[in-house]
Specification:
The chain is an alpha/beta fold and about 500 residues long. Strands 1, 2, 3, 4, 5, 16, 17, 18 and 19 form a nine-stranded mixed sheet that branches. α5 crosses α6 and α10 packs across α11. The longest helix is centred in the middle third of the chain and has 19 residues. The structure holds zinc ion. The site of zinc ion (ZN) has 7 residues, from loops.
Amino acid sequence: MPWSLLIKNGTVVDGSGAPGVVADVALEGDRIAAIGPNLAGEAARTIDAKGLMVAPGFIDIHSHSDLVYDKCPGAESKVRQGVTTEVVGMCGFSPGPIAPGRADAVRDWIGGIGNKPPATWHSFGEYLDFLRGLGTSVNVVQFVGHGALRLATVGGDNRPATADEQQQMERLLAEGLDAGAWGYSTGLVYAPSVYGSTEELIALAKSMATRGGLYFSHVRGEAGTLEKAYEEAIRIGEPLEKLRGPPVVHPGRQEIVHLGAARWVGIDVAGHVHAAGPGVRAIADCLIGGERWGSSSGSYGWDEVMVATSSRPELAGKNLAELARLTGKEPAHAMMDLVLSEHAGVSMVGFSQSEENVAIASADPHTMIGSDSLSLHSGPGPHPGKPHPRSYGTFPRVLGVYCREKRLFSWETAVHKMTGMPAGKLRLKDRGLVKAGFAADLALFDPKTVRDEATFPDPHRHPAGIPYVVVNGQVVVDGPRYNAVPAGRVLTR
Ligand SMILES: [Zn+2]
């Protein structure tokens, strides 16, 4: 039988961290069939990969694309980077489950990031069926968001869950795991996940024991409160570690602190503003006169917060100092007026972290690479504004800047952090390596030219030097062409 695709003469960097070797890779349908020098046999199609590295498709270990897949199933901004699998349902956000009568609350909650999903499902399984029906171009590893569990039971209230509500949350989580979720996530600086107590979260983690499941967390603090926040994360993850081996956030204080810095240069994705209502005006009055204002991420100057998306496109890309000049108001009032007039539907980029810390963190042997961003596409569509450039550039930036230019690690290590390592943490059985029998997810990149092209003023730009990306045997990135075919799958455990 002829190969469906034969990739010749590339340097195979297999994702395990082992040194790259020049070899051919042959595919049969959605599987890798053979790897070796000078593979013989006919092929329906042959790609000459001389000068390219042939790596497993990248795994984005922290993504929020589940909030936009209904508008952007082709996931172009991710796949063009070499990403073939996204881990979503992060930071406590997930589109399901939804309790009867709560669809509007969920749409408003998620919609603040820029897209209101249809929310036509109730159970987590029904949501996964909707996702399958969309036919995404990437594989999806979906977690249950703690915020969704809370909205379905406690609602948006800032109070502890009753014993009955706790039981309901555990039941919904169990249903989610049975339907194919990989675990649950928290976003302990975002409403309503932030209202959950440590005990509530430990009980939820323990409830996963018999089914298995991982715990991912956007922890409860940064800067001055970082250490306490990680202590809490470890306490919550501990029962899982005892039962199932090392958790995703692995203890060891210094490493953990590094992990905390491991987010992209300076910025939290669409720092979702939840405040709205009359109390906001009082907050604005408190802020006036301050050069810098505190937040869970430390402190910001007015010129360090940029409007990313707004229903008024002319404001996207303006920082709060500029917004103040434009409106003739104090920056705090200008900001609050904007938040109120858009019902908290604006998103921001905050410049609060140093690139040096990100470099240190990404070189740590325990860190993986996640974009913490959305799958977008560059053409006309529902994603205007100036989103953080990491939506388009995370993986090629690590390859081009941190690996090639700064030489923080080898190509093999860079690829391992994006493939074999996350696959191991997730216990993905047949992805994350270029290996015979494994799924045919591949990213082909040119080590001499791979780089991110997206910038803050011009974020909707695809990277250079990644000419081919294969998802389950289908060539999605094919030179300059993008085939937004439904090549991806909803992966279940
Ligand atoms: Zn996140």
